[in-house]
Amino acid sequence: MTTEQKPLVLVVDDEPQMMRFVRLALSSRGYQVIEATNANEGIQQVTAYTPDVVLLDLGLPDKDGIEVVKMLREWSRLPIIVISARGQEESKVAALEEGADDYITKPFGASELVARIRVALRHAALMRDTTTASIEIGREITVDLVKRVVTKRGEEVHLTKTEYKLLVALVKHAGMVMTHRQLLLEVWGPGHSDQVQYLRVYMTQLRHKLEADAAQPKHLLTELGVGYRLKLDG
């Protein structure tokens, strides 16, 4: 996608009413939209058009959406946002751990949808830009990935090795949901993939060091029953 092109969004959903809502919401905000009503057609559209973002329903008539995520992740890193009426934590976790970048539960508003797409596009651009040296979190926090230094209001914040690894894992997926298991594997390794209490303790420590109010965090956000999300703005 060049700066002159409008972002191309592929919507894979078999509900006509939802498809119409998403099409109107996105096209009125400057996005190009292509559509598919089943999994096989969706995969074909990905290969034919290489969209910038895929919005994927889980309840498709020919294949479960989680299986589609798994298939796409075998050869593509394009952003995938799951949209589904399944609100169960298990479905969210399964989709994210197979490689989805985000998850929106139906019904949702146009503003929320567009905000999630913008975050997904920004994250994809960040992943392509290998020269990125530092990330700003809000107006006060900077993470210098080259110097491995974190500052708050210009003063260095002293983090432990594990705290820093946890923060960097979230920074690399800024705006995206990371499940408990994904974070435990990345920070602590395979032997700790079910020890969620480790994660909670270190997340609390990070919040006390970085957030203005650790009890009401604005950046290190909890996704109940699923994991955590780092919000850069705000």
TrEMBL record:
It is found in: Cytoplasm. The keyword DNA-binding applies. The keyword Transcription regulation applies. Residues 132-232 form the OmpR/PhoB-type domain. The modification 4-aspartylphosphate is found at residue 57. GO terms for biological process: positive regulation of DNA-templated transcription. Keywords: Cytoplasm, DNA-binding, Kinase, Phosphoprotein, Transcription, Transcription regulation, Transferase, Two-component regulatory system. InterPro entries: CheY-like_superfamily, OmpR/PhoB-type_DNA-bd, Sig_transdc_resp-reg_receiver, WalR-like, WH-like_DNA-bd_sf. Residues 8-121 form the Response regulatory domain. Pfam families: Response_reg, Trans_reg_C. PANTHER family: KDP OPERON TRANSCRIPTIONAL REGULATORY PROTEIN KDPE, REGULATOR OF RPOS. This is Sensor histidine kinase. It comes from Labilithrix luteola.
